[in-house]
Design goal:
The chain is α+β, with helices and mostly antiparallel strands. 20% of the residues lie in helices and 28% in strands. The longest helix is centred in the N-terminal third of the chain and has 13 residues. The radius of gyration is 12 Å and the shape is globular.
Length: 65
């Protein structure tokens, strides 16, 4: 489905164009898990959803230090 395609691309760019800036997780996480994290943002594949092929909800954690 489209959401899986998006997740695949997001995972790919975390190891290429956005390496060191964007991280990827598909774990069950909470804000406390990112304390001290060096990435600007962490894409959370586990918490996003696809309502249909044209509408998805993406979740990314932002770290402020």
């Amino acid at each position: 489905d489209k959401y899986e395609e998006i997740c695949s691309v997001m995972k790919e760019v975390t190891n290429d164009k956005l390496k060191g800036i964007l991280n990827y997780t598909d774990d069950e996480v909470a804000s406390i898990d990112f304390i001290g994290d060096t990435y600007s943002s962490i894409f959370n594949a586990k918490h996003g959803i696809s309502l249909n092929d044209n509408f998805v909800k993406l979740v990314s954690w932002y770290v402020f230090t």
